[in-house]
Structure formats: C-alpha cells, structure tokens
Amino acid sequence: xxxxxxxxxxxxxxxxxxxxxxxxxxxxxxxxxxxxxxxxxxxxxxxxxxxxxxxxxxxxxxxxxxxxxxxxxxxxxxxxxxxxxxxxxxxxxxxxxxxxxxxxxxxxxxxxxxxxxxxxxxxxxxxxxxxxxxxxxxxxxxxxxxxxxxxxxxxxxxxxxxxxxxxxxxxxxxxxxxxxxxxxxxxxxxxxxxxxxxxxxxxxxxxxxxxxxxxxxxxxxxxxxxxxxxxxxxxxxxxxxxxxxxxxxxxxxxxxxxxxxxxxxxxxxxxxxxxxxxxxxxxxxxxxxx
Length: 290
Prior knowledge:
Helices cover 41% and strands 21% of the residues.
C-alpha cells in the first residue's frame, strides 16, 4: 500500500477528533518512527509503498489514536529539551512548559557557580527534569526521587539512553521515614519539583487523552488541600537546602498567590513567579535565607 493512501486514511478516520494539521503531524511522526522516513523524503517520493506487515503497524497506531491514546504512549517515546525520553502510562508525558522550568534552573546554575553543585528532583516521573539538568550541567551531582517503582524504572532507562549519571531514590516525600536516612548530612544547592497539582474540581476541564491515559497519582490532589505536596517539599527544602540555595516548582496556574505566601512563610526570599509560554502562572522560585 502506498503511504499517501495511508495518510488519506488517517484524515478520513481521525477528522472530528483532531484538526487536519495535528492528524498530518501524527502520521509523519509514526512514519518516521517506524520507517525512518522524514516528511521531506515522502514529498520527494510520493509513491513510496510499505508491506502488509508494515501497514498493520500503522493501522494499530491509527486505532490507538481513534481511542485518543497520546501519541507519546503509542510510540513509547517523546522529545524533551532536545533529548529523547521513553514514556509509558506510568509517567506523565513531558510538556513544553516544563522545558521552561529546566531552562530557568540551568540559567541560574550556570550564572552563580563553577563548583560542584547538588541538585534534587522530587517526583521525577520520566526523569525529564533530572536528566536534562544532568546533561547540561557537567558540574552537578543530580539526585531524583519518586514514590513509584515503575516511574523510576522509566527514569533510569532515560538516564542510560541520554548517558547521564543520576542517583535514583524510591521514597514518598509525604512520609519522612521513607527518605530521612537517604539525606542524612546532605545539603542541596537546588531542589526542584513538578508535583501533583491538578485539583479534582479541574478534571472536567481536562481532555480525555489525559484523563484516560496519564497516571492520576502524578496529576491530582484533593480540592481541600491542593498544596499538600508543596507544603511537604517546602518543609523538606527548609531543612535540606544550603544557605542561599534555591527551590523551584512547577505550579497550578490558579495558585500562584498561595505559593508565594507558602514560600514567604517558610523564610524564602527573592521569590519569583513566572508565566509560561501560554501566559499562565506556571513556575516559582525562592531562595532560602535562614
């Protein structure tokens, strides 16, 4: 079957679920993943044909897209900060706004010191933050913590793929007994976290491809305590950051004011709230001064 016919099949089957440009993008991503063919190659060779077995692979991906399964889970990988990351339903799909958080961390780290620094990523998931930081800071000792054994396996794989050294720790940040011995006598220059921050009341605003496939453990918090993880991580940071160390968070866009107050209450200074590319309050930084 010719690939141009398969492309038309994608449009016929997926129109109504996705827009035309997104459908084409899915098709080209799948073709490049399975056959190593880039869009320009197909443009130059419009009559390119594939075997029956190859066609079955594409049609399986098409059926998954019809169920609104994220393309990152269909292909089991995605790109983040210029690096390739393996993904599966045990980890959140890395997002562009988190790349902005990584960029902020790197800019601060590169501008303040040339000596070795210790960085901890809490709730590492796929490891996208920890791996990206380790890849771009040769002077960093990077640690990554997560409560999920399955997520840690993905993160370890991503560290190996991207050839970085990270110490991974299985622990629950909400349970001090599970991590206290791991960090005895250790202080960090930077602590970063993208913890669960979507309130249950916000579920109705979310797309089904997120609700039905991404891990709820890494997404949701109760309406009555939306800062649960932020409080625990901030308390941890107060005791485990070096003087003038920095705490970075990705946050719920609706809770910026509450996050500023949380950091102020815990003796953080130089607090900065930043918007993401979509002009939403998405990340915050504070410096420990006591």
